[in-house]
Amino acid sequence: MDEKQIKLLIVDDEVKFLNSIAQRLEMRGFDVTKASNGQEAVAAAQSGKFDLALLDLKMPGMDGTEVLAVLKKEHKYLEVIILTGHGSMDSAVECTKLGAFSYLPKPYELEKLLDTLRQAYEARLNKKFQSDQARMDKIARLATGSSALSILREMRKLDDEEK
Amino acid sequence: MVSGVSVALDERKKRPTFEGALPFPEEHYRDLKRRHIIRLGLTYLAPLLILIVYFYFIYTALVTESRRLHLKAVAENQANTLDLFLSERLVNISNLIDDPKFQVPPSPESMERYLQKLISNSDAFVDVGFFDSTGIQTGYAGPYPSLENRNYASEPWYQTLKEQNQEYVITDIYLGFRELPHFTIAVWRIVNDQFVVLRATLSPNKIYEYIVSLEGAGEVLTAIVNRDGYYQLVTPHMGTPLESSAMVPPIEPRLGVEQVKIDGQTINYCYSWLKSADWALIVQQSSMAGGTSLSGIQLRLILISAFLLLFGVFMIVYRSRRLVEFQIESDRTRMQLEHAAKLASVGELAAGIAHEINNPLAVISEEAGLMKDLMNPEFGDPQPPQDLVVHLDNIEESVFRCRDITRKLLGFVRQTELDLKPHDIHVILNEVVDGILGPEIAVSNITVVREYGEHIPKLVTDKNQLLQVVLNIINNAVDAIGNAAGTITITTENTGKQVRIGIADTGGGMTSGQLDKIFMPFYTTKEVGKGTGLGLSVSYGIIKSFGGKIEVASEVGGGSTFTIVLPAKSKS
């Protein structure tokens, strides 16, 4: 974790909460980007690269689940952890279906959040690794019988997905 | 969440004491009972009363008619008897003068014999006299010997006798020379070419005694008046002989019933003219006799009527009391249902509001954690305390946010006595939109548009109950819109007689089948566990108790509009 800063997007309409959690996670070595509503979150997601996201569900304007869908579309390997005060089993299940990594009801213990972040990051690395592995295998297979051009094309794809 | 549950338990504990009390003030029920009594009285007692009065009048008319007939019969009967009596006396006298042995002039001895003969016929005879053609009483037998040899030529009865064709005369009662009331029966004959008269006088007292001894005389007061309306014979109760009578019967018909007012009292009397004399026999219902003979039936009638009325009054009072008891019971049930619905909606509300508490709690947790971090040497030099104040402020603010939320919940759930006061409905609407449902609306995509009308009067109402209704309807509107973007439009309008509060949502609307059922208890379209189905039915009950109504217009896909209609001037 230390060798490379984890890029984290935090989305919450509760500004005081947003500021303090951001500060605390920054102190713990995260590279934090804050968004106080759905639109800001989408904008940030489109312009930057993120490993993980903390997302509130109930927000004015764009709802958390909508933001989740956009984030998952923009970033293939991004893992999203839902943080919400309006916790219920129904919404947890719904979010997991939509591709959220985990679901933490507010208020939570910081240790639990950090654990979850760690697990999410590992999951993301794992997923990325497996994907890369598959790609490498494909390149290797291609290398045996294809032109240099097609190899190059595959490598470019790999780079793009780094995002 | 915890606070919500404890409140519910507290309320449940309070219930038993609440059941003993009246749901509304005692005056309300007294007034209700009074109105029931009046209504039932008008429905049941009034016709009975009319019937009783009607039958009483019919009965009285019948009784009066039968009395008149009875009086008539008595009068006719007595008149006939009296006629017969007078005819007999006339025959007695005629027999004397028509006797072939009758001598002109008769000797004093024969006069004496005639008198004895007359008295033996009837003790009403007083004396007997013989008058020669010049009108001088030449023969006399009786208690007034001084009358002998008096000249009667100018006496009215003598003149009448002389001038008329009839062979006899029966006079009215007069005082005459003897200055005592008496009357005369006189007959004339032509004997030896001379106009001679035999007359006898009769005592009115004896005739009176005779009349009162007749059949049926006990029930009536009898009198005899002459053509000019002077008493001839009379019961002492009615007057004295030769006195003018108030009762002057008409000549025709010979038999009839008349009314006369004496001292402001209407008296019915029956008369019958005699055939033999110019007298009318008058009978009048003896008040004592009439009273007793009929009062028995009247008394029975009155007693039965009184019993019927009393029974009716008793039944009405009893029924009214039962109705009021039933009303109290139903009010109590309704209030309990309202309370249950309130608790249920509090439960729903609590779920929403409890979530609201989690947000400030998360702030507190984060701020506290941040402060710990800031003082942790692991993360660099500890911060000076003044830099921590901002975080403490944030914690404090969040605590107050939590407190406001719990207070709102408590304030809503608390069961209070019905408290009717003038309230500005806009304040109540704002309290629901900004206060109770504020946080929920803030995080939704719902825009609340307020189109408040002008000159909306303050309504005398119970704030908590109206709040409950508005909350129910706006809560439903919020649920109808759900996660989608939508608008809730709240309008108020004063139509003069009514104040209309419209709450329109842009949600999914309802089918006509759903519309028919929404006010039924336990009908809900919400997911299991989310709605109780009591909100609208209770709201409807509350608004009805305020004298208003709830109107609904809805179209599938076109949203729903609920309109609370309240009378502009509420019943106090």
What does the model show?
Chain A has 163 residues and is of the alpha/beta class. Chain A folds into 2 domains: 7-124, Response regulator (Rossmann fold, 3-Layer(aba) Sandwich), CATH 3.40.50.2300; 128-161. Chain A has helices spanning 15-27, 38-47, 64-74, 89-97, 110-145, 148-161; strands at residues 7-11, 31-35, 52-55, 79-84, 102-105. The longest helix of chain A is centred in the last third of the chain and has 36 residues, at 110-145. The two termini of chain A are 18 Å apart. The model of chain A has no long low-confidence stretch (mean pLDDT 84). Helices cover 51% and strands 20% of the residues of chain B. Chain B contains 12 helices and 17 strands. In chain B, β16 and β17 (559-567) form a beta hairpin. In chain B, α2 (26-98) packs antiparallel against α6 (287-375) and α8 (425-436) crosses α10 (463-481). The longest helix of chain B is centred in the middle third of the chain and has 89 residues, at 287-375. The chains are: A alpha/beta (163), B alpha+beta (572). The A-B interface holds A 13-14, 16-17, 20-21, 23-24, 27, 58-61, 63, 83-87, 105-108, 110 and B 355-359, 361-367, 369-370, 373, 379, 391, 394, 398, 442-445, 483.
Summarize the structure.
The complex is a heterodimer of chains A (163) and B (572). With 163 residues, chain A is α/β, with parallel strands linked by helices.
Looking at the overall shape, the CATH architecture of the largest domain in chain A is: 3-Layer(aba) Sandwich
Average predicted local confidence, pLDDT of chain A: 84
Order of helices and strands of chain B: HHHEEHEEEHEEEEEHHEHHEEHEEHHEE
Oligomer: heterodimer
Largest sheet of chain A: 5 strands, parallel
Q: Could you give the count of β-strands of chain A?
A: 5
CATH architecture of the largest domain in chain B: 2-Layer Sandwich
Radius of gyration of chain A: 18 Å
- Record the strand order, biggest sheet of chain B: 2-1-5-4-3
List the helices and strands and how they pair.
The complex is a heterodimer of chains A (about 160) and B (about 575).
Chain A: E1 7-11, H1 15-27, E2 31-35, H2 38-47, E3 52-55, H3 64-74, E4 79-84, H4 89-97, E5 102-105, H5 110-145, H6 148-161
Helix pairs in contact in A: 2-3, 5-6
Chain B: H1 2-20, H2 26-98, H3 108-121, E1 125-131, E2 137-141, H4 156-163, E3 168-170, E4 183-191, E5 194-202, H5 204-212, E6 220-226, E7 231-234, E8 255-262, E9 265-273, E10 279-285, H6 287-375, H7 385-413, E11 420-423, H8 425-436, H9 438-442, E12 446-451, E13 459-462, H10 463-481, E14 486-494, E15 498-505, H11 512-517, H12 535-545, E16 549-555, E17 559-567
Parallel strand pairs in B: 12-14
Antiparallel strand pairs in B: 1-2, 1-5, 3-4, 4-5, 6-7, 6-10, 8-9, 9-10, 11-13, 14-15, 15-17, 16-17
